[in-house]
Amino acid sequence: MKKQFLDSGKIVGTHGIKGEVRIDPWCDSPAFLAAFKTLYLDDKGETFVKVKSRPHKNITLCKIEGVDTVEAAERLRGKIVYINRDEIQLDEGVHFVQDLIGLEVRDVNTNEVLGTLTDVLRTGANDVYEITRGGKQYLAPVIDEVVREINVEDGYVLLSPMKGIFDDAD
């Protein structure tokens, strides 16, 4: 089941004297998070704040409506911010990391279950899938030659494993 409200960053501090907060974005970029006019302070969407945001280096600076002092902003430090899935239009073939975690990973040629996708690591050149099987972790690059299909609705990823990824040489 897909989560409606996605954790997207953490308030890590204040900025200036007028109540702005600094958010460490957990999404693609500070600019992506800055595009939202509403952020949620819980994963059920019950507590929300209206915001004006802008990217600043590797963080998002955010002015929350009604938070006008450093002291008020400081009280928000450590809070996780969420975005509403319905307020986002993803490009074709683009998925939320949270939707990928837990997918079954299968070999595209044999349909053998290779494990479960347990994390997506951001490396710069390309992402890397962490796949767990039998208590061991394996790493697979997210490149077209390896990741052949992602089917979030049916709960699987098809891989064409490169030599060495799943080879358990003792």
Tag the structure with descriptive keywords.
six-stranded mixed sheet
Describe what you observe in this structure.
This protein is mainly beta and 170 residues long. The protein has two domains: 5-85, RimM (Elongation Factor Tu (Ef-tu), domain 3, Beta Barrel); 97-159, PRC-barrel domain (SH3 type barrels, Roll), CATH 2.30.30. Helix content is 8%, strand content 45%. The chain is built from three helices and twelve strands; from the N terminus they run ββαβββαβαββββββ. The protein has a six-stranded antiparallel beta sheet with strand order 3-4-5-2-1-6. It has a six-stranded mixed beta sheet with strand order 10-9-8-7-12-11, with no helix packed on it. The protein starts with a strand and ends in an 11-residue tail after the last strand. The mean pLDDT is 92.
